[in-house]
Amino acid sequence: MTGFFITGTDTDVGKTFIAARIARSLIQQGFSVRVRKPIASGCTRQADGSLLSDDALRLQQGANSNENLQEICPYQFEPAISPHLALQQAGKWVTIEQLAQSCHPTLGTREALLVEGAGGWLSPLANDGFNRDLAVQLRLPVILVIANRLGCINHALLTAQAIQQSGLTLHCAVVNQVHDKQDFSSGLEDWIECPIYRQEHTTDSEIIPLADFKL
Ligand SMILES: Nc1ncnc2c1ncn2[C@@H]1O[C@H](COP(=O)(O)OP(=O)(O)OP(=O)(O)O)[C@@H](O)[C@H]1O
Ligand SMILES: C[C@H](N)[C@H](N)CCCCCC(=O)O
Ligand SMILES: [Mg+2]
């Protein structure tokens, strides 16, 4: 299966921002793209009482997806907390296996699957596992999004090490300029064994493909 699991050094590092741009890059390379955000917390309550995952919406837009938001993000919760706590508060029991099932569309030959977790690699994602466990279950190569802020080298290397210990391939890393400030990641290329892409801080409203990204 062609595709990637998108993780990050933390929550709020640009996983969705970058995943949407990777989707555009894949479309440019002739793929159609399926996206999944299997579980999302911090969803907003709509006027009609339904919940909206902003991540799912941005992934849908980035992939020009014709799948509906419920297919893209089947488990949505309002509190902006760890998914395992959101599940507990809602009195629900959801497993990694169930999340994996929701990520298994039948893919065509020129289709790619992008799955975004929640939080970072060892953030809980279900009642019985972490982001890591879903990526392992899906057997997808991993893309690591690194927020370019002080401390990012430690967070990036810890996460890269954990990804490799899981047996999965770290396909690439993306140093994401979440703030238009200086580069705190200098030297990372010497210590992390995968291609590193860089995304500048941008306010472009349209979704520009991630420069030079290769499948
Ligand atoms: N390179 C960038 N330039 C400008 N804004 C950015 C950039 N990267 C991320 N952002 C903004 O920072 C915020 C956090 O990004 P995003 O939602 O992609 O993080 P995330 O890692 O997906 O968070 P979560 O863990 O909640 O899923 C968003 O408002 C996003 O638009
Ligand atoms: C609400 C937030 N934006 C994310 N969707 C969830 C982040 C969970 C982090 C859990 C943790 O590692 O402490
Ligand atoms: Mg996100």
Automatic annotation (TrEMBL):
Keywords: ATP-binding, Biotin biosynthesis, Cytoplasm, Ligase, Magnesium, Metal-binding, Nucleotide-binding
Binding site for ATP: D12, V13, G14, K15, T16, F17, D55, E116, G117, A118, G119, N176, Q177
Pfam families in UniProt: AAA_26
Main EC class the enzyme belongs to: ligase
One BP annotation, GO: biotin biosynthetic process
Residues that coordinate or bind Mg(2+): T16, D55, E116
InterPro entries xrefs: DTB_synth_BioD (IPR004472), P-loop_NTPase (IPR027417)
Residues binding substrate: S41
Enzyme Commission numbers on file: 6.3.3.3
Organism domain of life: Bacteria
Active-site residues, Swiss-Prot/TrEMBL: K37
Catalytic activity: (7R,8S)-7,8-diammoniononanoate + CO2 + ATP = (4R,5S)-dethiobiotin + ADP + phosphate + 3 H(+)
Molecular function (Gene Ontology), one example: ATP binding
Family of this protein: Belongs to the dethiobiotin synthetase family.
Function: Catalyzes a mechanistically unusual reaction, the ATP-dependent insertion of CO2 between the N7 and N8 nitrogen atoms of 7,8-diaminopelargonic acid (DAPA, also called 7,8-diammoniononanoate) to form a ureido ring.
Description of how the protein assembles with itself and partners: Homodimer.
The protein, known as: ATP-dependent dethiobiotin synthetase BioD
Originating species: Thiosulfatimonas sediminis
Organismal lineage: Bacteria, Pseudomonadati, Pseudomonadota, Gammaproteobacteria, Thiotrichales
